[in-house]
Write a structure and sequence with these properties.
Strand content: under 5%
Structural class: mainly alpha
Order of helices and strands: HHH
């Protein structure tokens, strides 16, 4: 007897993830807390040229992201649709650039927020 549905996927997949989360959940939570503390300590102890270099890299990532987003949305802008949100207004070949643009921009913004925690003196 087949335990999957009509398309062949296993319907018990959510239960498998639940079992993994129940077994490894506390360990993964501790690892996430430890990683978060390491990131916090990294930004807290960042000073001097390292801080400046990271600031320029974050700013560059935001500029690259903004350029990718603008390039992907250019066909919508040319069609006169200036206030569109999401990927629906973007042609299929440019959706990858749009997604990468948001990834770069968000990464740069998160690094800039992390730099606010530092003692850049």
């Amino acid at each position: 007897m087949n335990s999957g549905n009509a398309n062949g996927s296993d319907s018990s997949a959510p239960y498998q993830w639940r079992a993994i989360a129940e077994h490894w959940g506390p360990t993964m939570l501790l690892m996430l807390i430890a990683a978060g503390l390491q990131v916090l300590l990294f930004f807290r102890n960042l000073t001097g040229p390292g801080w400046t270099a990271l600031l320029w890299m974050a700013f560059g990532a935001q500029l690259v992201g903004a350029a990718l987003i603008a390039a992907a949305k250019m066909p919508a802008y040319r069609a006169g649709r200036h206030f569109t949100f999401g990927q629906c207004s973007i042609p299929s070949p440019l959706r990858g650039a749009y997604r990468w643009g948001w990834r770069c921009f968000t990464t740069g913004a998160l690094v800039c927020m992390g730099l606010l925690l530092s003692t850049h003196g």
